[in-house]
Amino acid sequence: RNGIYPLMNFAVSRPHALPRVLSQPQEDPQKAKTPTPEPFDVETRKVVQMQCNMELNEDKTQWHLTLLLILEDKLHRQLSYDLLPTDNSKDLALELVHYGFIHE
Prior knowledge:
With about 100 residues, this protein is mainly beta. About 10% of the residues lie in helices and about 25% in strands. This is NRBP2 protein.
């Protein structure tokens, strides 16, 4: 979500001990709840500069899209995606907003 550098903070110095459970009760499949999707963070920073590159993959059958976004706090965000024949720009933009990559 915040670029490549925060990924360094995810390393754990020692593994966490997981509690052991002897047996888990069986749930009735009719009573099992469907998992609710977790809400995504809303991006509040605005994009001040954007660069878009499209190129054909090596096999020349599919387009590859790369977006370089510079947000108002000078954070750089690079996103890449292999385009499908059914993709259009409006749906891609709505998806970026939905997943919290860009401000609406």
